[in-house]
Structures are given as C-alpha cells and as structure tokens.
C-alpha cells in the first residue's frame, strides 16, 4: 500500500515563485506512480516539474525508481528543480 505523498520542504517557495512569474501551477505530488510534483503553465505551454529539496544530500535528492521510470518514458517537457 502506498503511503501518503508529502510535498518537499521547498515546494511552497518554488510554487510561489512560479506564480509570481505569472505561471499557473497544478499540484500533482499526490498522484503517485512517479508523476512529477507540479504542472506549470505559461503562454499556452505546460511543463511537468519534479521538485527536490536542494538542501538535502545529493543521494537524498535522487529520483525514486518510479520517478526515473516516469522521466524515461515521458515525451513532453519535464524538469527537476531543486531551488529558486
């Protein structure tokens, strides 16, 4: 059974920054299956964004197996963001 998804410590700060830039943001971190944390839209374009806490050790910021599988198979825009 999957445990409840938690947002990274810096997710609120990063989401706020995207919104300050005029982007729309859709939270996806509870979808599961390796789905990235947020979808960001601007100028009729959308990108998926995986948020990692840049304050953690590099090993703790690595993609999970599900995240890596999702990243490897996704054919659209997908980014990993660690800080502003």
Describe this structure in words.
This protein has 84 residues and is α+β, with helices and mostly antiparallel strands. 23% of the residues lie in helices and 24% in strands. It has helices at residues 11-20, 65-73; strands at 24-27, 38-42, 45-51, 78-81. The protein has a four-stranded mixed beta sheet with strand order 1-2-3-4, with helices on one face. The longest helix is centred in the first third of the chain and has 10 residues, at 11-20.
| Total beta strand runs | 4
Shape type: globular
The proportion of strand residues reads 15-25%
Biggest sheet, open or closed, and with what strands and sense? 4 strands, mixed
Distance between the termini: 33 Å
Radius of gyration from the CA trace?
13 Å
SSE ordering: HEEEHE
Helix-strand blueprint:
Blueprint: H1 11-20, E1 24-27, E2 38-42, E3 45-51, H2 65-73, E4 78-81
Parallel strand pairs: 3-4
Antiparallel strand pairs: 1-2, 2-3
Give short descriptive properties of this protein.
single chain, 84 residues, alpha+beta, four-stranded mixed β-sheet, 4 strands, globular
What's this, in brief?
This protein is an alpha+beta fold. It has helices at 11-20, 65-73; strands at 24-27, 38-42, 45-51, 78-81.
